Amino acid sequence: MINRTYIKDLNTKMGEVVTIAGWVDVRRDQGKMIFLDFRDMTGRVQGVILPNYTETLEVGKTLRGEFVVKVQGKVNPRPERNVKAGVLNGELELEIQEIEILNKAETVPFAVNEDTSCINEDVRMKYKYLDLRSERMQNNMRMRDKIITFFRAHMHGDDFLEIETPILMKGTPEGSREYLVPSRLEVGKFYALPQSPQQFKQLSMVAGFEKYFQVARCMRDEDTRGDRQPEFTQLDYELSFSTQEEILNLTEEMFIKMVQSVYPNKKIQQIPFPRLTYAESMEKYGNDKPDIRENKNDPDLLAFCWVVDFPMFEKNSEGGVQAVHHPFTSAKDDDVHLLDTDPLSARANAYDIVLNGYELGGGSIRIHDREMQEKIFNILNVSEDQQKLKFGHMLEAFTYGAPPHGGCAVGIDRIVMLLQNEPNIREVIAFPKTGEGKDLMMGAPAEMGSAQVKELGITFKIDK
Ligand code: ASP
After folding, report:
1. Which residues in 316-371 belong to E strands, given as ranges?
2. How many Å lie between the centroid of ligand 1 and the Cα of residue 348?
3. How much distance in Å is there from the Cα of 408 to the middle of ligand 1?
4. What's the mean per-residue pLDDT of the chain?
């Protein structure tokens, strides 16, 4: 390991000779002197090679932006007139004594020492590892980590247990198309990638854990939509012996504390978060994710609200009935009788949390009774055979002492996007895909070698 001082700590080393390691951020050659800004993961510092360091000046002349260097120098205070107040290392300068080039760099396809948001996005995607060097992207990723760390600690502090659930599974009906993975050992069979850990978290309740959470990757094969990605991250949680009221309250408390701790400069418009029924939201705002901000130009204003009492079912484009949330959601006690007479009018114990006009997430109180679950599948026109085949394990599990339970899941990418004031979630995901689901850096999805495909026992004809 290189024995070095982090750039952020240089102000504690005034007058000392130190070694730093990082990248050349900017080089300004003034002939007799060369000014160099260096960057490591902790920040930036300005250095200068003075005329009397003739050998180092020679090295300095060969440096270009993004070269990787190890630099020895003395930490000097800046002359009064050059002090930049409020900027990291604005009060000091490195008097460079020696530079060792650890690696050279080609001229980068776009400048990474400035905001890259105006660079063509396909180019940024192809060189994502360079895009991520920019200060804005570094900051986005570091704030994302802070938010996730806060949520994890908060959940653990409240006795939730993080359980990892499978990625290779049999699919869960979250209303989207699933990604499929062919099985090699059972030719002709497929795994599905989880649209969410929904079934596993419910089964964790049957398993007696009572409080589950997970920072979970979810995969949905959806058509191109502005702020969607084929894979995204949710903070997913589930509780036994709970009520809608408790889940709303604990979610709300978690968000308030997160904002206070990670974004103390932001202001939450209204606490407790206002609650609207789905019917009220539709009537007043014409949608189920209302933007209730009093001032839409204030980048630090956070207007959370809840939308509750969603309908159980809706008509789909083929004229059939589909679940508004998912088929494991229970009906409101007052509306259970409607399931037999007028299911489309029945309201669900389902809720969404909304921030500044974006749906952050949602959840429901679940069905934990086999007969009720079968009734819902029947309304959804899932045949008895299909019920057994697809959800037999859930129906069976409900017969072995399943506790009443409910939960919620909130989208981490959207939360970070909104808190970082970014226009889309690609800006807060380290290695995102394009709107068409492509990874332009790696070139995924890709054609597989015929030997690999053959091993899977698959032959296919491509219809284009
Ligand atoms: N699994 C649901 C979703 O991803 C959330 C939940 O019901 O907890 O939308």
Report:
1. 321-323, 350-355, 358-365
2. 14
3. 6
4. 96
Q: What is the pLDDT of residue 225?
A: 66
Bridge partners, 444 (sequence order): 439
What does the pLDDT look like over 160-219, one tens digit per residue? 999 999 999 997 777 789 999 999 999 999 999 999 999 999 999 999 999 999 999 999
Report which ligand 1 atom has the smallest distance to the Cα of 329: 7
Q: Dihedral of CA 325/327/329/335: which sign?
A: positive
Identify the CA nearest to 279 among candidates 268, 288, 291, 289. 288
d(CA 143, CA 154): 16
Enumerate residues lining ligand 1, CB below 6 A.
174, 196, 198, 362-364, 407-409
Atom 1 in ligand 1: residue holding the nearest Cα = 198
> Which atom belonging to ligand 1 lies closest to the Cα atom of 234?
4
Residue 22 has a pLDDT of 98
Ligand 1 atom closest to residue 195's alpha carbon, by position in its atom list: 4
pTM of the model: 0.96
- The rounded distance, in Å, linking the Cα atoms of 173 and 301 is 35
Ligand 1 atom closest to Cα of residue 350: 7
How much distance in Å is there from the Cα of 362 to the middle of ligand 1? 6
- Cβ atoms of 214 and 204 within 8 Å: the answer is no
97 CB neighbour count, 10 Å cutoff: 17
- Which residue, among 174, 177, 222, has the nearest Cα to 196 in the 3D structure? 174
Helix, strand or coil, per DSSP, at residue 20? strand
Pocket test for ligand 1, best of 200, 325, 352, 367 (most atoms within 8 A of CB): 325
* CA of residue 139 to ligand 1 center, whole Å: 29
Rounded Cα gap, residues 36 and 29, in angstroms:
8
Sign of CA dihedral 156, 160, 166, 171: negative
- The model's confidence at residue 104, banded by pLDDT at 50, 70 and 90, is very high
